[in-house]
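Operator note (shift B, R.M.): manual run for ORC1/DEAH AAA+ ATPase domain-containing protein requested after the automated queue skipped it. Running by hand, logging everything below so the morning shift can see what happened. Input copied straight from the record, untouched. If output looks odd, do not overwrite the archive copy; leave it for review.
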Amino acid sequence: MSHLLAYAPFVLESGDADDQMADPFSIVAGVAGLSDVCCRLVSYVQSLKQDVRTISSQLAALTEEIETLRKLCQAVQGAIPTSTSVSLRSHSTPTAGDKQTANEKQLFLWSFVDGCVNECHRLVERLHVLLVQVCGGDTGAPASPSGKLARLKTVFARRSVDDDLNRLHRDLGIQHGTLNTLLALISAQDGRLAHIANLESIANVANDVHFLRRRVESQTLLGGTTSPQTPSSPGSRDALAALEHLDIWFNSMPAETPLRVANRYFDIPQAVSSYYVGREDLLRELRDVFIQPPGPLHKQRQRRFVVHGIGGSGKTQFCCKFAEENRDSFWGVFYIDGSSKAQLEQTLGRIGRLAGLDKSTANESSMNAALHWLSAEQRRWLLIIDNADDPSIPLESYFPKGNRGHILITTRVPGHSIHNQNVDLQPYNFSSRLLSPEEATNLLLRAASRPSPWDVTWRKIAHAITETLGYLSLAICLAGAAIRTNLCDLNNFDEFYDLSWQQVQYSSYAPDDSDHKFEVCAVRTWEMLYLKLETENTQRSRDATQLLNVFAFLHRENIPRELLERALANADLETAQAEKDNQQAAFESQRQITSYFDWLSSKQRSLLMFLFRPRGPTPFPDAIRWGRMHGNARKGVLRVKQALSELTQRSLIDYNEISKSYTMHPIVHKWARMRQRLSRQSLWADTAGMVLSASILLPPLGLEAEDDTYHLSLLPHVKHVQACREAISEEMEAKRALTWKSRLHFGETLYAENLVMFGKFSLVYMRSGGFNEAERLLTFVVDTLVRMLGPHNSRTRRVSLALSDAHWLNSKPEDAAALQVRQLTLCQKHLGPRHPDTLRVMSKLGHTRWQQGQLSGALELQRQAVQGLKSSLGETHQDTLIAMDQLGRTVIKFYRRADIEEAYQLHRTAMDGLRALHGPDHAGALDAQESVSRTALLLGVDYAVQAEQLMAEVLQRRQSRYGKTNPMTLLAMVNMAIAKCAIQQPKEAEDLMREGLLVAESMYGISHIATAWGRCILGLTLIQQKRYNEAEAVLEEVSETQKSMAARRGNFHPDRLGTLTELARCYYLHGKMEESIETCDEAIRGLRSISKPGVEHALSAQLKMARATMLLHLEQGSSGVLYTPALAPPVFPAINFCQSD
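Run finished. Output pasted below as returned.
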């Protein structure tokens, strides 16, 4: 009973006496006496256990109950009020609505504590007398076993004594639970703890009371008739009556009060095996020592416990079993993968999603935010750090700070034991504390599905097998799977096991390596299972081994079943699209050869394509290759599921029904990868990459919202496949360099499938915010395609545009513009100015010019592109709608009323059209909705509330799809902050900006164009709060940063002009009129530099008017004063939203 209750308007019935008196001294005396008897009895029973093996389980349970009761006595002594005279009187039991003082509540609670202590004292004394009567002796050790043991066994066999022991044990448990609950309630009544009261704590105590009441009721029913030696306990009846009153009171609370709150979060590394056995004593010991007892928050300490040992020894299963058994003791159970820094950050992101953090990327900011969320949580939580096997990783960096929470660590590194903290227990070493022979035997027989009871012969054979396996739990489970699936039986297991090991090609661990001897046991078992699959030589077994080889090169966690299903289903879609592309390429080729040089170049490229054509089929597992044939997709899915079922039954992979994904144990994952020769590893790494690639669709396919979500989930697998391929390539190159054959090697041969794979991987990186890696991959693909197909080929153009997008997203507008200009020239030359591809490139180039601040040039290109796309593709085509949305962003930058209204209509049309095509979650539809919101803010204050609602929806959808640290989510956070300022909520806007800037600065740096703009909006939120000094400092810094941006035009990028306008307004509001005028002059010069000759920008005209008004103030001698009654204040341009100073 571990919860505190800070509001408990009830009292406890303390018996039938009308005037029962007690005081702290009497309670202290009673507790001291009870504690003394408990100490003597624990010592007596422990010595008795050493001589009486046959009843050790009964005595162990009694010892545990009495020892816990003794500790509880110490807690009671520490909680007794210090006043010297307190009367504890019984009262009639009130209803839930009765009003009572805090002192009255304390009186009744302590009155019942007094009764419980007296009853416990009576029960323990009775137990002591009974054991001394049976075993002889007194408070010391029992009599010599020479004549007493026989008598003890005889007496204990009698039912009357057995019943007495059971009843005493039961009654002690009842009193123990009741006393524990009373202590929690008394602690909660203490005013020093009132600040932690909340409904959930009420619910926790309500659950405790309900559980204890049911326990007392059930044990009373099981107790049967009372024994003559042990009459029915009045204390038990009183406890049941009191618990009934408490339960009734809790249930009588208002219906809206949530009193039955279960564990809210439960995420463990793996499901507990159905065959789990053993280590029950360790689970019980850890539960009693590890879980934080009730007490004030300021006295709590974060508890950490380390379980270390070799791989496969059952560390993770033990921790999962502990979490499962004690689930209701924790508000939340979470886990993170400690195998590497990247995995620590990525799995912390999974915890972060519970707090609305990122789904797709892993970085320091999202990690810190997740840790902060846990450290701030007052309710009891458990964090499992699994597979923390890298000694170079500072684990302490991944502990939530503060004094709260419980942390379990599994590791192969004994040195991590230093992290054991605030637990009166040494770390468990599963290398030396493997399963006991009996536990291992039971585990094997259960895993082999042998019906119990097990006879002596079976147990003897099983014991020999487990000894061979080194009592390693994972190896035993796998051996049981082999027997269960009839690969062998108990009698011939050793022969089959040795025969399998002779064929092992595994080379990572030598059999005589003492550091890994237990892992070798597991490896032999896995190898046995694998070779048996191979020798079966059925379609299902072949498919299973091939899929295992594929999984070995994907990330070992969360391998979605959808990956294989998409790899099958996408084939027909890609085939149909390829036919369209080939027709387009054939049509274009007729128009591209305009000279003898073009003809010669085409022949050379055809020769290259012939020389580098694939010499065989794409490396796919047989099941995938067959399923990708036309019409076989649905049958292929069934075939794949059957193969995966084979692997699951043999415990080589685990399936998670909730996430519909597969996982592999770290050692199994490494064994499956390293068992093969290097050349085979290279083949299967490529195969894994091809399967992964086949599950991804490139535009114009795969544009739906669910495709985006799926692509985000693939990032760990893409990274792992790439890392494996690169490591294998380096190792092969190093070995090749030692032989004469290296002179004949001209590097890796690249086929079309490899280029497609790289292109698809770059899409995953782009969706996840990994712009640098996407840029690197696409640059390689474009360079290769230019050599092989030529720059004007449709495929080359398409990938080149994707590369320009990567440049744009990576804040490299010059690189993007240069590439787009080349593409536009090629398209105009070979396709003509009205071709859709030409118009698409034109629209993209216009958008890049907008980012560069070349607004007039951008506007001209975008208007031409939109008009052409409407004519060639139609007004409702996706490309037309996206071009319209981008045109609107440029139009609004001219800031005339007509421009703002036109931009609003463009964005609205794009949003409605994209929603109709793809739904509201589509990325393009969200972009357009964001633009609608921003434009509405400039239409007037009447639009502010509508704009804020639209922006809130965009932010919510992006957080749900991408998480908080995705670039598009960060953009939505900035725009949401602007909307918050428009509806006069600047503090909320500031909080939003500071949260987003922490992420942006860590991901992109403080000088990135997006970060600088975000800091400008932070300055805007400070102006709204009249914190002018802070705002000036931020805006001055941003202005200097924007001078040197790569996307500048001179020193006057449009973003900087917006910053200067806000800075001028801030100066004026702060009474610094001269500085404001100087800043206006600089902004006016900048606006002149980006405008066409002879055309004045709308913002320039408004700034001139504001400047003139401030000059009038100065002329009238009011320098440093905002304005005089005779003059109206200056009106600054509305850059972000309509406002009034």
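Quick read of the result: Strands lie at 265-266, 303-308, 332-337, 381-386, 406-411, 428-429, 559-560, 654-656, 661-663. The CA atoms of residues 596 and 602 lie 10 Å apart.
Leaving this for review. - R.M.
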